[in-house]
Amino acid sequence: MKINVFKTEDEVLEGLANYFVDTAAESISHHGQFSVALSGGNSPKKLYELLASRKFKSRVEWGKVHFFFGDERYVPHTDPQSNYLMAKKAILEPLDLSYRQIFPVNTSVSPEEAAARYTNDINLYFAGFEPRFDLVLLGLGDNSHTASLFPHTPVLHDKTASVKEVFLKDQDVYRITMTAPLINLAHHIAYLVYGAGKAEAVHHVIEDKTDIENFPAQLIKPTDGDLQWFLDTGAASLLKNK
């Protein structure tokens, strides 16, 4: 695990954008394509917009990039809460990508069916090989959740490299999420976290003793890959070992 700390939000975003570019180039050089699982939320939206900007757009062979989603809200793709819709506006449409490069979660079926179909989509993409994404982008919630691996939910104990539905009782909503074992197969995993409001969660996940039920992001430990955190000084402020 490597912890990268930057002074400002803009520097964090640029640092991760450069990491994205380098990882894409490495993957395309090795096997001709780059598979990335996107995260949702406001923080990654700014990253996606930066990647699609004039400064970064020409630095990636976008025609060889395939986009998946680490998790999705169980809402229509036209809903403002949809991770797919956010990514579509922030990066997918600006880059004018082919629909063949984009793998959204089908939320028009039941949550269980949506999860099963997405597992199948992923397995078909990897054509019988172990489903190892080149890069999985993650965020971190105030409650130490990542993707849709929330505290005290059954999916935390799922040992399959798959996609599962998650029901959040307190919100009365479903989410669709990659399981920790699937995320952990990735060649590269990168957290994007900034703001002092996330400092406590960052400390819990990185430095507290293991408590998966309360700090689900502790589940993310690559089996044979690279894990990096991209933080600003606010988010890293409670870490003892930076």
Helix tally equals 7
Query: Ranges with pLDDT <50 over ≥5 residues?
Result: none
Q: Percent helix among the residues?
A: 25-40%
Overall mean pLDDT: 97
As for the number of domains, it is 1
Structural class: alpha/beta
What top-tier CATH class fits best? Alpha Beta
> Would you identify the CATH architecture?
3-Layer(aba) Sandwich
Radius of gyration: 17 Å
CATH topology: Rossmann fold
Biggest pleated sheet: 6 strands, parallel
Which series of helices and strands comes N to C? EHEHHEEHHEEEHEHE
Could you give the distance between the termini?
Answer: 12 Å
The count of DSSP E runs of length 2 or more, i.e. the number of strands, is: 9
The multimeric state of the shown protein is single chain
Write down the overall geometry.
Answer: globular
How would you summarize what this structure contains?
By secondary structure, this protein is an alpha/beta fold.
SSE blueprint and pairings:
Layout: E1 2-6, H1 9-31, E2 34-38, H2 42-51, H3 54-57, E3 65-69, E4 71-73, H4 83-92, H5 111-125, E5 135-138, E6 163-168, E7 173-178, H6 180-184, E8 188-193, H7 199-207, E9 226-232
Parallel strand pairs: 1-9, 2-3, 2-5, 5-8, 8-9
Antiparallel strand pairs: 4-7, 6-7
